[in-house]
Amino acid sequence: MSVAPDNLLSGKFLCIRRSNDISQTSSFVPAPTVNDHNDNIYGTHHAKDAAGLFKTMDLDLNLFSSALKVNSQYMHVVWFNLELKEQTDKEKVLHLLQRDKRVALTEHHSANTVFSFGRDQGQYGRLLNQTVVVEDSINVKNGNEITGFCFTPQDGNSILSSIAATVRFLNPHSYQDKINSLSNFFLIESNVPIQKNCYRLLEENTYILYNEDKECIIIDPG
């Protein structure tokens, strides 16, 4: 499967947005609330913003988005549907996603488990990846239509993109090298097996991180 921009025939997105940040007490919605389609071509501003970004690279992409807010403070969820020119399969799609350092893959299906992983394992409790794709949600129909779900860490969107824009402004000829220094903070997968045990009367938490080779790390705050 080619990653060339002209391989994309169309892209549709449903942005299922969290109500507000976990640190905020205002703007919370009590129930799922649907956004209007204010743009006849792009739907909501999400596709319009993405298309505008690619137009700076002389690319005119066929994108359309819808959006709604739900009564959760964890993470945004995005449903996506991509129609391609070239034939592909699920294995190739996952391989391309694995190669992208700014994308993380997960076997988790709920926002709270991904959010919790970022809090426990991310840099200062933050996920700097631009998105976390749910592996099992990836589906390829007729060989050229990709559908799936991904979680959007707001930390990655705001912090990383703000740093990138600032560094490019200050160092237009070497910004890429400087941005690459953050690569070590990206998580490749957000599904490392973690077992939590509670001990003693005060339920002190002890964490066990392990892999398939039966190697483990025991984290005991006591």
Describe this structure in words.
This protein is α+β, with helices and mostly antiparallel strands. It folds into two domains: 5-191, Dihydrodipicolinate Reductase, domain 2 (2-Layer Sandwich), CATH 3.30.360.10; 192-222, no CATH class. Helices cover 25% and strands 30% of the residues. It is built from five helices and eleven strands, in the order ββαββαβαβββααβββ. It has helices at 45-55, 90-99, 111-121, 154-170, 175-180, and strands at 8-18, 33-34, 63-70, 76-84, 103-106, 131-134, 139-141, 145-152, 194-199, 204-210, 216-219. Strands 1, 2, 3, 4, 5, 6, 7 and 8 form an eight-stranded mixed sheet that branches. Strands 9-10-11 form a three-stranded antiparallel sheet, with no helix packed on it. A hairpin with a 4-residue loop joins β9 (194-199) and β10 (204-210). The radius of gyration is 19 Å and the shape is globular. The mean pLDDT is 83.
